[in-house]
Specification:
globular, Rossmann fold, alpha/beta, 8-stranded mixed β-sheet
């Protein structure tokens, strides 16, 4: 018995890297999989069917069931088309994994509006559209469901040269938190992964190039079990969480709040804020 027996899962950006690892593991655990990938380059240029087709072939060769999808996640019709493909082929959709993304890195003062828009378009708008389309289908079926988004350490902590990517991934965190609140009454869980893995998206980053054995230590396959967990009934009571996976390490990201401070007089002055900054910013155990 697999953890996803009888389930249907759609995974975007599943033609390589983390998405491919998700798709292969989900299929081994019994899911019928929609392998969505636009087939473009890392910067989002171009399209093609070979990446999605190859993953479908791998799943089928191992005895699983899958179909390829080439829709654009950031197009409303494309997002709805992914869900419709699942319904047409397999009768339903139980799990939506938003993983598609591109990179157009540049420091803030050199970044163009086109670079900004392209990254926000795929990551944030794409996650919104696919989450919305999946949630409507799951709500109408009234049998619950699982939505898994993909945020990033860059979005949660910031990263040099990635203002567009960081903003998009931070937005996905907010989307995840709000969707989890809104969809809880429909028994639809919404969580996010924050993976650190060696893929074509990250292979030329200095930290990856400097790390010995990065291919093994940070293989995408380390991330897939966390996605499987969130997609399965094992996580039926977990929603609104951000699960970080860094090689074999798993931990949660949470927003923290320092203890509140009160002014000594009727209200704060800028000078008093400065004088008491260490008190205001102190995170007590």
């Amino acid at each position: 018995m697999g953890l996803l027996d009888g389930k249907v899962a759609a995974i975007t950006g599943a033609g390589g890297g983390i998405g491919r690892a998700h798709a292969l593991l989900f299929a081994r655990e019994g899911a019928r999989v929609i392998v969505n990938d636009l087939g473009g380059a890392r910067d989002g240029s171009g399209t093609g069917s070979s990446m999605a087709d190859q993953v479908v072939a791998e799943i089928e060769a191992a005895g699983g069931e899958a179909i390829a999808s080439y829709q654009d996640v950031a197009d409303p019709d494309g997002a709805r088309g992914i869900i419709q493909a699942a319904v047409d082929q397999f009768g339903k959709l139980d799990v939506m994994v938003n993983n598609a993304g591109i990179l157009r890195d540049k420091t803030l003062h050199k970044m163009t509006v086109e670079m900004w828009d392209a990254v926000i378009h795929v990551h944030l708008k794409g996650s919104f559209l696919c989450t919305q389309a999946a949630a409507i289908h799951m709500r109408d079926r009234n049998e619950g469901g699982r939505i898994i988004n993909t945020t990033s350490v860059s979005g949660l902590m910031g990263n040099f040269g990635q203002a567009n990517y960081s903003a998009a991934k931070a937005g996905i965190y907010g989307l995840t938190r709000t969707a989890a609140i809104e969809l809880k009454k429909y028994k639809i869980t919404v969580n996010a992964l924050a993976p650190v893995a060696l893929t074509r998206m990250t292979e030329d980053l200095p930290m990856m190039q400097a790390m010995p054995n990065a291919n093994d230590l940070l293989a995408p396959e380390h991330v897939a079990p966390a996605a499987l967990f969130l997609a399965s009934n094992l996580a039926a009571d977990i929603t609104g969480q951000v699960v970080a996976v860094e090689g074999k390490r798993i931990y949660l990201y949470r927003m923290t709040q320092t203890p509140a401070a009160m002014p000594e007089g009727d209200g704060w002055t800028a000078q008093e804020i400065r004088e008491r900054w260490s008190e205001i910013s102190d995170v007590k155990p």
